[in-house]
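Hey L., structure's done. Input below.
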Amino acid sequence: MSAKSVVRTATSGALTPEARVSEYDWPALGRELDAYGCAVLPKLLAADECRDIAAMYPDDNHFRSHIHMARHGFGKGEYRYFKYPLPHLLGELRSALYPHLAGVANAWSARMGLEQRYPEDHATFLKRCHEAGQTRPTPLLLQYVAGDFNCLHQDLYGDLAFPIQVAILLSEPDSDFTGGEFVLTEQRPRMQSRAEVVPLRQGDAVAFAVHHRPVQGTKGNYRVNLRHGVSRVRSGMRHTLGIIFHDAR
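Output:
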């Protein structure tokens, strides 16, 4: 599906996060998520916003922890989890994106026969997370240099997890870095894994399934397992903003 089919007008950094998020054709994005487990939101952030967020990486004041992937067998590269209060733009984007994805999440739960339902607003969902002992913020900023990669994984930080998350590419491919493609894999029962490589430009976001999603089969819906990662960066430096909607223990 082309970018024109999922967004009505070009996103401008002058728009509020809520206004720019509302510009997208969310029914079309929902169909993309249903069909492929992922959907691209072109130009969610302006180039200057991308640069400003990436520039936060060295500043400890914004973050609660710093992870070196190789130490944990996650791949090679590093990332930092933001602390509360989140930077204003990040917090506003998290709140603005959530309601549009909650409808997809609830439809998926129903199709998979799960009891879990998600409230319409993010504040209510976060309250549920905190009541379940999941109080640490999960939005993160990732940094890769040449030779770095992120192994296929799932971002589950507790019993309560929102089934869709968003990643925003902050760097410009072929200018800031080469390689480093976003990869999503899907394992269907009794079938080999299927890979989806998602091309992104600076400021583009991809919404994708965190863990499971439903697929319509000949005998009804069945559940498939998904993992995501980043292929090897060949040159330069790549920054990504990850927006996870549930908090962690």
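The domain at 3-243 is CATH 2.60.120.620 (Jelly Rolls). The chain has one domain: 3-243.

-- N.
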